[in-house]
Amino acid sequence: MEEKKNIFILLESKAEELELINFFMKSCPNFSIYLFFWDTHKESFFSKEKNIKDIESELFSADIVVNLLPKQSQIYREIGQKLEKMKLLKWQNSIATNLLFLQKSNIKKLFEKFNIKTPVFKKISKKEKAGELFLNFPQPSRIFSKSNDYFSEKLESLKDIEGVFNVINISDESYYIEEYVEGIDWYVFIFKDGDEIRSYFIEDNNNKTIDFEDTVQKIDELSKKVFLDFGIEKFALLNIKKTKKGKIYFLNIFSDLYIFNNSKKDIIDKIFEKYDLNLRDFLQSIYNI
Known about the structure:
This protein is 34% helix and 24% strand. By secondary structure, the chain is α+β, with helices and mostly antiparallel strands.
């Protein structure tokens, strides 16, 4: 009988994190899972399953560690660097990659750097007025946050943009306006399996496009280029738009485990169902990368 592996999960006690843990527990029944909570006031870890004196000593008994601590926190970086040296982050991309992709503005700049077509975008200054933005930027458009956690709907009028300005706080200079590209959304789930890069596609449309096979080939080539050029270590979910004229635009990249439990979960589920994938095999594929 195969010996159970010990999975240590580091987290704060937020609902989103706990939901993801439930997902792991259902998907990995043959693993022993231990939760270590970070107490921000005491600046130390505690566990309901174990008495902890020193988290670093505890880590030596782990086979895998999943770091779900807030990426903006210092402890995420500090403990993450130690986990990387100990080669325990088997199921996650590097700390550097996750921090880089935390900001959509960074992702957009990388698209430009590596000549990957992406919609035109511009930082909104804190003094910018809705009217100026509407007149001086291609329409339709949409607004997104630097931290990759807010996206407006399609904006087509001054009234639309004023409505967004009433919701968000422009004064902290953390928002961008982006050209809204009309077309069909494609999603690519891509990951390393040994020396091979595997990619799986889903088109957000009930009917296949006429040039479906040609489109898949183009998107496959571009997705693998992005994966390699951006230095993604293990996996990512890519959001792509294809226009009626056949142009392919890359919109965003998601590189952390929350794609299995947040608004992207339905997309992942559809891809897994379409290609008969399962979480256990995927995690095994990226385990030794």
